[in-house]
## 1
Amino acid sequence: MVHLEFQDLLPIIAIKLGGDGLIFELCKGYQMLMDGEKGVITIDSLKKNSVLMGLQDFSEEELKNMIREGDTDGDGALDQIEFCILMFRLSPDLLHVAQQLLHKAQQQNTVHLK
Ligand SMILES: [Ca+2]
């Protein structure tokens, strides 16, 4: 199990930003970590950009484990969906907050599906 400081921040970010803002932040996090040419997160792009996410203390092995854990289609990289799912899996609190936000948004009828 990988422990990240980032995941501890996500529930707080989620409460502050609401559902749409949370997804936006997740996408921003993804874009910060991804390989600009390949459009996916690889072990190299993760290593290069990890300092931006406060992950600089993680060893290469831990970063590899993070990718392995999130890589559901086995291509050795994280695409955007894999990354978001991994973030939710790493942070049960986040999932809880997201469900609450979604519920609230549905009640207010403010969910915009694209
Ligand atoms: Ca993958």
## 2
Amino acid sequence: MNACRRELAMDHVPSVCPKCQGDMAQGHALDNTYGGVLLSLWQLGPAKKSFWGGLKISSRAALLPIAAFRCQTCGYVEFYAREEFAPT
Ligand SMILES: [Zn+2]
């Protein structure tokens, strides 16, 4: 994704809470794992258990990083799954 498309996409994330008009702050959702924490990822379809434990992954290329925007006033959280939210 080039810089222009990235800026366009970032215009479509919330800066004002749709519930109370408070300020939204960007964050991310963490998954605790043994020995650390990981960024939550979005995958198409319902979750399915893996034979080996955990969940099935259909295609690693199709997984998207999730950003969580939280209202500083009421706590409402809105999630967005997009490539530009990958860890830097
Ligand atoms: Zn709010």
